[in-house]
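Researcher: Structure prediction, please.
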Amino acid sequence: MSRARVHNFTISLDGFGTGVDLKLESPFGHAGQRLHQWMFATRFAGATILGRDTGTSGVDNAMAEQHGPGIGAEIMGAGKFGPPGWQDDPDWTGWWGEDPPFHTPTYVLTHRPRPSIEMEGGTTFHFLDAPPAEALAVAKEAADGGDVRIGGGPSMLRDFLAAGLVDHLHVVQVPILLGRGVRLWDGLEGWEEGYDVEVVSTPSGVTHLTFTR
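Model: Predicted structure follows.
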């Protein structure tokens, strides 16, 4: 049975999944790259994001590597696909160049859909104006028996969590305070009661929280 999964979603100690003042030069706003330094240090990120063959191979890497296996489609919010205003740029094809790291049908939730974009490496971006349950049904059909990765950002992910649609959630809490931005957990009091929870802290200082239905 196809599941909805979230991997490597990173938040600050005060619960923010992104900062403020997002723009082309700073996709996470005032947070910069501080939320994701733990992942950039891993061998997984080196191979899939940074184009290098070095990096750590400990617990952080093992957790990060679970991002890919078994995934048949992805759903992301408009804020992950591009900076504010990208809908006004017909040439915008995402942050990731000609070969995005998804390699599956990828559904971008936006109130301003546009024609699909076929990229190298098996990624095709489709643009949907749909509520979470409807978008997940479309993505599961495209996944053809594989799982669907819910990619964020925090507002979009919160909607999927509130709707009870996520089967597996991997959140990484990093020891920084952002003070401003978009929180993941707002309005989700008691959400964890339907899940088994595992917590692992690593030498990098981050804490991996895994919620499995």
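Model: Helices lie at 37-40, 43-50, 59-64, 78-81, 132-143, 154-162.
Researcher: Thanks, that helps.
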